Amino acid sequence: MKSIFIFLILYTRIVYGAFEERPRPFQFITDVPSTLKSAWDLSFNTKKETLYAWGGIFLSTGLLIYYDEEILSEFQRFGRKIGIGNGDGTTSFLKVGSINIFRGPTDVGSTLYYLGDGWTHAFIGLGFVLTGLAKDSNRTLTTGSQIFNGMISSTIVNQIAKRSFGRESPYRKSAKRGRWRPFPSFSTYNNNISKYDAMPTGHLMTATMTFTIIDENYPEQRYWLRPFALTWMALLGYQMVNNGVHWISDYPLGIMMGYVFGKAAAKSGQTEVSQNGKWNFLPIYEVSPNEHVYGVAGLFSF
């Protein structure tokens, strides 16, 4: 017996909006200009949510600047109370001449601080790349590539911002809440970095960027990933004030930059596959012991 039918399916998008192509060699570098442009477009527009975000950043930064000294004092008092101290416990493990290549943690406090170190997030990105290669997973490989792309892109802008504000770190302060010396010369900045680089935080920016990219690529893991990321960032944020590297008012702008560059970098290597509002028809042919079935499936995406 032969039968013919038309089978129509109202189809909703069951994928997460994009298909990850295998990254090209060095795509994490070649996509930097497009990531910078995307970050600019996300940051500077007249959308209501963007204006609200900037308003929140200005207000929270101003409020936190007012309480910077009190928060610094209380964070450091608590650090001494629980026995992690207020100093920098990282030490150099690898040097080439007088140039420090790798500094690592040696105690609990420096381990918390290291949660935001560039090496930590580079290792996370490398872990995704190696896992993607081993499992032949484009999604995993793309995630690693995007993390490296985000690190490069966000660092460029972060360095411009730091040199523009020129704010002293707490442990080097020469005035209450730290002195601001905008636009130091290149040599002045590089010869005395901690006197000029507090605002905005690079560590929290990088952590936010990394977790935003992972969140974008693995939305099905958000139920545990987001609480984990918030805990990670809270511990890192506390320790950077406790060890005197940052004022808490350095955080709102840095976190915003990390989120924006995470969203921008997550577009690298993705191609949209949905065709919203369009019908697609697929032939169906099924063979069973008693009959052949011919048909057409109509799929409407929206």
Number of helices: 11
- Our measurement of the CA-to-CA distance between the termini, rounded to an integer number of angstroms, reads 36 Å
Which parts are unreliable, with pLDDT below 50 for 5 consecutive residues or more? 1-17
Structural class: alpha+beta
Q: Tell me how many strands there are.
A: 7
- Helix coverage percent: 40-55%
Principal-axis shape equals: globular
Q: Describe the biggest sheet?
A: 3 strands, mixed
Mean pLDDT: 87
Kindly report the spatial arrangement of strands forming the biggest sheet: 1-7-6
- Give the topology string: H per helix, E per strand: EEHHHHEEHHHHHHHEEE
Strand content: 15-25%
Radius of gyration: 25 Å
